[in-house]
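Holo prediction. Input below; ligand is zinc ion.
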Amino acid sequence: MELLLRSPLDMHIHFRQDAMLDVVAPLSAAHFAGGVIMPNLIPPVDSLDRLLWYTNEVRRAVGTHRFDPYMTLFFRDYTREELVAAKPHIIGIKLYPAGATTNSDGGVKEVLSMKHVFAMMEELDIPLLVHGETHGFVLDREREFCEVYRTLATAFPRLRITMEHITTEAAVSLLDEFENLRATVTPHHLLITLDDVAGGMLNPHLFCKPIAKRPEDRDALLAAALRPHPRLMMGSDSAPHPIDKKESAGCAAGIFTAPIILPLLAELFEKHDALVNLQAFVSDHARLLYNVEPPTTTVRLVKESMIIPEQYESVVPMWAGRTISWRVAEVS
Ligand SMILES: [Zn+2]
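Structure of the complex:
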């Protein structure tokens, strides 16, 4: 049994910088024809100079793979001139509430105080990508943030807003309420719940932000992905940390999935008799929603077992050592 996917896209990736960038960028570029590159470096990618520098770094690390990096700026109080200058080089601007996840200390303290920037982004047609969590109780952060999404979607009806890595039934419902809301969802949030992270022995390699939630949340996300919901895109949020930052007190948040995303999804969609919808979920919806035209590639997956490697250099992937039933046979 085999499956062909045309120009798969990963609409939410962390490539990091320096040595880690060189490890992970080729792994994504080996399977994907493009992806949205997140700007939460230290310091963040929040100026045109830094954006152009990082774009070059990413292109260098990707090497000869056919892969379009869709770059983002880290949200701050930009001037109109800065937005106009950046627009040709970015797919959108990523907003992090301060302290919400890895390297987001410089994020926004009060989202709704930035309405003047959202208004300019709406006028210039620059999409807003959002890490949607409040500073409330960890399981309630996304559900509470839905009020902010609702306010933004209502106040700026032409602003294209992506709810990044949604994890709750509440966010899935919201997607149906507003035409200008779209969302990414990760493979891991379609597969795991909080029980897999902390229900038994603590599993640091499944610890991420937003944290995996309840079974009914996962089921709602999965139903939307399998359907497939036309405003839902695959964004892996693949987020590498070296093993000593995961297997330690003070475990860093992030799950590394880049090299196994397509086999994981083929297994999951086949299990639910929805393989025919995987193309839309991993490419077609993103192309339409962001109006991008990635390089033409074809990924051939075959139903043959694969053991997930224990490590990629210093990084432990999700489900290391586990056998899954699909693998990537060829990319052309
Ligand atoms: Zn992320």
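The radius of gyration is 18 Å. That is the main takeaway for now.
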